[in-house]
Write a structure and sequence with these properties.
The structure is a homodimer. Chain A has 10 helices and 11 strands. Chain A is an alpha/beta fold.
């Protein structure tokens, strides 16, 4: 059994990007610049955004954090987005989600210039992804493709079962892995809350992407020997034995499933750390494209 | 066994649209207007476009046919598209495919204003479809959803197997049928040329969408009893016994598969006739949206 080590892989990717940025600077080209907009004081969101800014510093990108108060109006946010769209210094930017309830999230995502949409959430970029055209693939699916690639997990002709149909993970994963691409050419089954006989389906899977958000949902009896497991779930569960009072669980019962698996991502330290690395990769791409 | 009669259903839809157009006129609202651009003299393309214009006449739409010679440059075509984008009289328009080889098809499709893209081929509309947002769903997938709906074929919780991963049919069908929508909520497996053990997979299917373009590929031994079959294939095969020298075959061996099926589309007269009806529905939607 081989652990798909997202922490190490993510660190490798950041090192590669650091080298590329040094080269860009040496060549007198523009230093990539990522901006992030955060609205309000949600603790988890601030932590995520903070980690993104820190990652920019590590690889030598410029970064800008735009902090707006929780009572910012939709109109004000749209005007800030327009400002970033028109600012040639900024290569790419993200709007940290979730947004306060009085703001229409979809409207905001649609306002981001697709050429600066390094989160890959704009419909135009989702459409390009679905059409297998060059674009920004959103961080979680992109990170999964990259992990499978770097560990040489064969996907061509394999049967992938995706559990969960979210727009962020399940749906794009099912689209990407079925396409003609390096990590792709798989037979893909997408399953969700309405699926009947799920176990019958997962038992056939060569690769399982678990992205439903129910801790330890996937158990050993649901998988065959030598399966590859990508665990996208991450749920805080109370645990009084831990100093901080909780532990993090994935959608997979790791201890038992890992005994049958060929490859498996841990939680934490699997898919999670990959996302920021892929955001940086998209920003680097945006910078090269636009300059 | 029930035949999913696309000819009749398409005719019903056209009657419904005719009624809506009469009502729009009565209300003093704008008459929907579809334009079609055709480049060159391909016989099949001219037949298709001709059928679309005829269908517009039948339901009371205005129509405009823009005929360009086969040596039209990409730039000239782009400028014609720009003209239609800016013409408020035109509610929606299509560019008949395929285009001559010196023209970049993707570039052309990207130039169409997404709000007038009644073919649903622009990445923005493909992305909206993938995100389950309101948009123009392209005619073939939309027609299949409509057929399943009007014949009350249950899809929720059913296992759909899609054969073929084209951007026009296989890929969007697999996305749409897995979504939370009236005709949707299915467990969907997308298969293609790289799929191994296809028969093992199709034997589990409650619904099969065959869209690979190989005549009579799907045989009775590949399906279970009471399956629903949607046959998207249409291939001309030489047949000297026919007056015109050929007959049309689908991707399904109709005679033998129909004996096991609950529902099945014939070829011709199944999915094919639905596409023009759905193009008209999209044009009606565009006209209501933009006026």
């Amino acid at each position: 059994m081989i652990i798909l080590d997202g922490k190490k892989t993510s660190s490798d990717i950041k090192d590669e990007i650091t080298q590329e940025v040094l080269q860009l600077k040496k060549d007198g080209r523009k230093t990539p610049h990522l901006a992030a907009i955060i609205v309000g004081n949600d603790g988890a969101s601030r932590t995520y955004v903070g980690a993104k800014v820190k990652a920019c510093n590590r690889v030598g990108f410029h970064s800008t954090l735009v902090e707006l108060s929780s009572d910012t109006s939709e109109k004000e946010l749209l005007s800030k987005i327009e400002e970033l769209n028109n600012n040639n210094e900024i290569d790419g930017f993200i709007v940290q989600l979730p947004l306060p309830k009085h703001i229409d999230e979809q409207k905001i995502l649609m306002a981001v210039d697709p050429n600066k949409d390094v989160d890959g959430f704009h419909p135009t970029n989702v459409g390009k992804m679905a059409l297998n055209l060059p674009t920004f693939i959103s961080a979680t699916p992109y990170g999964i493709l990259e992990l499978l690639d770097r560990y040489h997990v064969e996907t061509s002709g394999k049967h992938v079962v995706v559990i969960g149909r979210s727009h962020i993970v399940g749906s794009p994963m099912s689209i990407l892995l079925s396409q003609k691409r390096k990590v792709g050419n798989a037979t893909v089954t997408i399953t969700h809350s309405r699926t009947q006989n799920l176990t019958e389906i997962t038992l056939k899977a060569d690769i399982i992407i678990a992205a439903l958000g129910i801790p330890e949902f996937l158990t050993a009896s649901m998988v065959k020997d030598n399966v590859t497991i990508i665990d996208v779930g991450i749920t805080r569960v109370e645990d009084s034995s831990k100093k901080n009072g909780y532990r993090l669980l994935g959608d997979v019962a790791f201890d038992e499933v890992s005994k049958k698996a060929s490859f498996i991502t841990p939680v934490p330290g699997g898919v999670g750390p990959m996302t920021i690395a892929m955001l940086l990769k998209n920003t680097l791409l945006a910078s090269k494209m636009n300059n």
